[in-house]
């Protein structure tokens, strides 16, 4: 018993030491806007939030693209893809509720029905009747769930390393593992070291040289934006409950993209989506979890060919 008590005591001491060394305050969004908003950034008051978005490209396009990022990410994940596509299409990227500069929803609700309602409201405010959704990872799961929610408004969709099916033994990122570990994950409300951010980013790229100090700084800053850590923890504890068996009901024309070296969501899932969504097309790139960042031109070209 004394040995166990010593071990537990030592563990507590280590946890307290880590907390004291790494703990840092939330950053007010007012501090972050000058750093991460640009001349194309707009802020829409909607559903109790000020949603950060960019509306670029061909203003007369009647079937615009709406781009949805993944977990703990931001609209910046689409920067290079938007650079190519906005020559030909209207391209709208946004920070989803709970993330980046948009921050928490006052409803404190982060499930698929909520995000579907948000997309409806967002598109309506922009006076968009029909659109094409493009989603990566968590954004991909939000996309295919929206296809079930309001198929008449969704002309087409593109799924990029999309979440949805049960895990297939993927190794995952260090950050995701910690965030999914009971008790320890509560520390992430206060402790978000840049070293952890870097390790997590390195696990989502096949080419780790693409992880820059600037990226690490941005991901760290948007992670500790006021309220965002609480949202991330809530999601990791299980606020999303999509029914992957309903994917077979989807009739929306679909294009599936995947990174062959994705460690977070196995490339095997691409075959699952294409089997379940009849008539869907797909392509595999020799990259990791975020093809739009590793091979943006190839992703943009594939999207353009599919939607033109």
From TrEMBL:
Ranges annotated as spanning the membrane: 7-23
Record has Methyltransferase as a keyword: no
UniProt keyword list: Hydrolase, Membrane, Transmembrane, Transmembrane helix
Keyword Transmembrane helix assigned: yes
A single MF term (Gene Ontology): hydrolase activity
Domain named AB hydrolase-1: residues: 64-294
Protein name: Alpha/beta hydrolase
Species this protein is from: Aquirufa originis
């Amino acid at each position: 018993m004394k040995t166990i008590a010593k071990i537990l005591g030592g563990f507590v001491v280590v946890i307290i030491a880590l907390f004291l060394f790494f703990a840092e305050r939330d950053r007010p969004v007012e501090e972050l806007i000058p750093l991460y908003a640009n001349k194309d950034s707009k802020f829409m008051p909607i559903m109790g939030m000020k949603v950060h978005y960019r509306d670029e490209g061909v203003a007369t396009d009647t079937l615009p693209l709406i781009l949805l990022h993944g977990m703990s990410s931001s609209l910046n994940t689409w920067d290079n893809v938007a650079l190519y596509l906005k020559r030909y299409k209207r391209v709208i990227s946004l920070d989803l509720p709970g993330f980046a500069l948009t921050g928490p929803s006052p409803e404190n609700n982060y499930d698929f029905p909520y995000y579907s309602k948000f997309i409806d409201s967002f598109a309506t405010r922009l006076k968009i009747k029909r659109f094409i959704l493009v989603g990566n990872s968590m954004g991909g799961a939000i996309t295919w769930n929206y296809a079930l929610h309001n198929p008449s408004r969704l002309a087409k969709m593109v799924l990029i390393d999309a979440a949805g099916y049960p895990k297939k033994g993927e190794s995952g990122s260090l950050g995701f593992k910690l965030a999914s570990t009971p008790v320890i994950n509560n520390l992430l409300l206060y402790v978000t070291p840049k070293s952890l951010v870097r390790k997590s980013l390195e696990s989502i790229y096949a080419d780790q040289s693409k992880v820059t100090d600037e990226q690490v700084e941005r991901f760290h800053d948007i992670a500790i934006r006021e309220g965002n850590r609480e949202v991330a923890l809530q999601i990791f504890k299980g606020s999303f409950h999509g029914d992957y068996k309903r994917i077979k009901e989807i009739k929306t024309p679909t294009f599936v993209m995947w990174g062959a070296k994705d460690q977070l969501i196995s490339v095997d899932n691409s075959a699952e989506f294409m089997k379940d969504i009849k008539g869907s097309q797909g392509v595999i790139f020799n990259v990791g979890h975020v093809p739009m960042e590793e091979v943006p031109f190839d992703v943009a070209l594939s999207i353009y060919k599919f939607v033109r």
